[in-house]
Amino acid sequence: MSETVRQLPEEQLPVSPSTLERYRILQKAGGLVAPLLTVVLAFLISGVVVLLTTGSVVDTAKTYKGIFDGTGLDWFFHVGSYQIGVPFTSARVWFPWNTNDISSQAAANLEQTLLLWTALVLVGLAVAFAFRCGLFNIGGQGQYLAGSIAAVLVATELPHVVDLPGVLLILVSVLGGMLAGAALAGIAGILKGTVGAHEVITTIMLNWIVIWVGSYLFDVGGPLQTKAAGAAGAVPASTDIPDKAQIHVFWGDPLFQGLDVGFFVAIASLVVYYLTLNRTTLGYEVRAVGHNPEAARYGGIGVARNYFLAMAIAGTFAGLAGALDLLGWKFREDITDIQSSSIGFIGIAVALLGRNTAIGVGLAALLFAALQTGTASRSLDPSIFPPELASSLAVIIQGLVVLFVGADVIILLALGWLRRRRPQKAATAT
Amino acid sequence: MSRLPRGGRAIAWAGVLTGVLAGLIALPPIEIRSAAAPVVVGLAALTVGIGSWIRGERRIGAYAVATGVLGLVIGYLATRSSVDKLDAVVVWGALFAAMLRYATPLAFASLGGLFSERSGVVNIGLEGMMLTGAFFTVWGADDTGTWTLGLAIGIGAGGLMGLLHAFFSVSLRADQIVGGTAINFLALGLTTYLFVKLYGSQGTPSNISTIPAVHLSFLGHGFVGDVFGRLDLLIWVAIALIFVVWIVVFKTPIGLRIRACGEHPRAADTVGINVYAVRYGAVVLSGMLAAAGGAFLSLGFNGSFTPNMTAGRGFIALAALIFGNWRPFGAAAACLLFGFASALGVALQTYSLSISTLFTALPYVITLIAVAGVIGRSIPPAAVGRPYVKQ
């Protein structure tokens, strides 16, 4: 077919932009078009579920509008004249958006979304980093919990350390969380590198081990359940971290899950992820092993070593997420949270949709964080769509996204089909 | 006599037996009260296991290490508790019956996974397929009023989930692990959605027609009678299924075709086997079997459905499949092991609630050790996880 095209006189080829150039644009866009199509498709199909529930297209649109309004992203649209405090001073200056959660529900929702974004970016990176080494880390959940549990233990139980001043205590607790996540994921990495145990199985098993050991620690009769008065009757939990160990909240009410400084740590982590993968020897080796372990081995790269390192670094990201969440807004670890949290699994969807790139993970995390907040909030009109169904709707959308991400072959096939059709048209035109 | 293990292998098996003994001597009916006894015997098993591992008998060496640690811990705990409590927790008849109950959903899903993986498709979506079966069986039984139709609906729904997985992993050549993860998300979202929509906060009704138990009163009230006397119908089906699957997979032309597609799809294609059709069939069948496991969990075991009630059992079934080297009897043995650990964990609740919680982690630890130790011998189907492109 291409032979025919090449033989055509120049003037009979499609006019500018040339076919070749168009493919090039399409292929470049494929990096963005494919995930976008995936998301659109997922929302359309889950729209059918909503349509079946609500029974009308208008109500379906209203439901989606309600979910969007609950995400807090509409905050950016309400431009006005407000004031904002300058950090570390008492001065107030003009600001185009309303940052006051009491007068702006959108601001409070946005804080929630960004708080969740912080954790999702980090667990997403945990999955993505392992992916770049050819490993599927389903253990983000366990590594996240290990980070939380380690952080609460360091901040409440570790002798001498608990007497440290605030900032140091936070640093040590966060480090503890990162180490715990790294150690847990490292087990899976070592097993993969030495005996070839499949990381999917080992990380899932490690998830459950953390969940049950964690539950044991803080459950009724467990060794670390809080001794504080008034805790009886409530959900069994750890001791609360001291006030000095709480991470500084820079936006919103610190007592009502305001946005803490961990947000900036997540942004920094995206940069670190990019730099480590693309600008260091370690990143080069990890990617080489991910592309082709045999070729990497032949090139003198230690495959087992990189499996371990990739998993340990992945676990560090997830452990960091757990520690930041705990010190930022949870303040204690309770067993319901240990047993029912699913943030690590959403991290899988984040990494897949974000195609394991730093920017992609950042954007995908925003989508899923917004979806999570939007479906959890009370902004849905019960007469149109039952709010208690909304969180399941979010899970369905996540599932559809993952399903279509896996099948990006459809989009590649479509592109290839287009590619074949174009020259054909050009050829028949003669 | 030639089939008996010899040399290093026999020593390793002796280590496994020693490990079992370490736990057994402290339990009824023997009940040695000295804490030193199980510790010494357990350590002996551990030593033999490590020795065997070093000398190359890795798989059985790992078993010996695992049983040694287990026997030591169980035996030690038993000597620390009072005789009354011990007699309350360790009632062998009840424990074994519970073991069969806990192993059955795993066995169904594991045998389902066996078909899928033997045909060359990784099925990490077993968890979601089980959950689908669990919900739709309850819904079907509630809606139609009979458990038979409920079971049929549940198995059909599981088959549809299998079809979805097959479509994406076989026809669209999507990454099979990603596709399976998607199935798990979708099943969780869909079943929770429907559960909340249809049953709301009240939960599924309590008067659903449940799968009946088979009463074998002639077995009497001894150990055998306690274990097998009144088992759920689906447990017997699961036991029969192990043999059926073995015959189908290893003794029939269909089984040969399935295995050929999983080992060398190109060769299978060359001799005229329709690889896509075989893989489709195997994955749909795996969905149906996993759904049957889920159905037992909801309608047979609990008589109700709760969101995310499978709680990782699909993954344990997958681990059991690997543990059992992709063979029906091996997988079934692994399921029994996990079932026993669960049964013991629940029985321990009378002893101490928090110890029982800790014990829930045990099956997962065993799996981890097993997957790590077993790998020297466990060889997956050669083409598993690789989409086939017909030429």
Name some characteristics of this structure.
heterodimer; A: 430 residues; ABC transporter involved in vitamin B12 uptake, BtuC; two-stranded antiparallel sheet; two-stranded antiparallel ribbon; disordered N terminus; B: 391 residues; mainly alpha
Q: Report the β-strand fraction of chain A as a percent range.
A: under 5%
Ranges of chain B with pLDDT <50 over ≥5 residues? Answer: none
Sketch the topology of chain A as an H/E string, one letter per element.
HHHEEHHHHEEHHHHHHHHH
How many angstroms separate the termini of chain A? 14 Å
Global shape of chain B: globular
Instruction: Give the integer mean of the pLDDT values of chain B.
Output: 86
Q: Considering DSSP H and I runs of 4 or more, what fraction of the residues of chain B is helical?
A: over 70%
Compute the average pLDDT of chain A: 83
Helical amount of chain A:
55-70%
Output the CATH topology of the domain at 103-368 in chain A: ABC transporter involved in vitamin B12 uptake, BtuC
Strand content of chain B: under 5%
Total number of distinct structural domains of chain B: 2
Q: Which two protein chains have the largest interface (Cβ within 8 Å of the partner's Cβ), and how many residues from each?
A: A-B, 52 and 46 residues
Q: What's the CATH architecture of the largest domain in chain B? A: Orthogonal Bundle
The CATH topology annotation of the largest domain in chain B reads as ABC transporter involved in vitamin B12 uptake, BtuC
Structural class of chain A: mainly alpha
Structure description:
The complex is a heterodimer of chains A (430) and B (391). Chain A is mainly α. Chain A has a domain of 266 residues: ABC transporter involved in vitamin B12 uptake, BtuC, CATH 1.10.3470. Chain A contains 16 helices and four strands. Chain A has a two-stranded antiparallel sheet. A two-stranded antiparallel ribbon of chain A has the order 3-4. The radius of gyration of chain A is 25 Å and the shape is globular. The N terminus of chain A is likely disordered. By secondary structure, chain B is mainly alpha-helical. Chain B folds into two domains: 83 residues; 268 residues, Orthogonal Bundle (ABC transporter involved in vitamin B12 uptake, BtuC), CATH 1.10.3470. Chain B is built from 17 helices and two strands. In chain B, strands 1-2 form a two-stranded antiparallel sheet. Chain B starts with 6 loop residues before the first helix and ends in a 17-residue tail after the last helix. The mean pLDDT of chain B is 86. At the A-B interface, helix 7, helix 13 and helix 15 of A face helix 8, helix 14, helix 16 and helix 17 of B.
